[in-house]
Specification:
By secondary structure, the chain is mostly helical. The protein contains five helices and no strands. The chain has one domain (23-112). The longest helix is centred in the first third of the chain and has 13 residues, at 23-35.
Length: 114
């Protein structure tokens, strides 16, 4: 039900688990993206190159851009985005990875459960 008090803003949460089959290719792609970025100042470029070379998760974070995910969705404009990546142990059979049960609500309550 839509009411005048309903916000026009929507928080979209997306969680992905990727299997990196070729870390070298991911790193090369991130380095290419850095080299092609005309707005990246020299000092930041050096830092970004070091980060993506040392850590595949950083390279992925550099390659995945939330703007790219929504730029062609009609009627929306990205207002703010943040994202991160990390290496994880993944077991698709574990209940910890059941994405259907994690709707993003009540996360704080789950933290309080002992």
């Amino acid at each position: 039900m839509s009411t005048p008090e309903t916000s026009r803003f929507v928080r979209l949460r997306v969680e992905l688990v990727l299997e990196v089959e070729d870390a070298g290719e991911v790193t090369k792609a991130a380095l290419r993206r850095i080299a092609e970025d005309p707005e990246l100042p020299g000092e930041e470029r050096v830092h970004a190159e070091a980060a993506v070379t040392e850590d595949t998760a950083e390279a992925l974070a550099y390659l995945v851009d939330p703007f790219d995910l929504v730029s062609e969705v009609p009627g929306v404009e990205l207002q703010q985005a943040s994202w991160s990546s990390e290496h994880v142990s993944y077991d698709p059979d574990s209940p910890d990875w059941d994405l259907d049960e994690d709707d993003g609500e009540g996360d704080e309550e789950e933290d309080d459960i002992g």
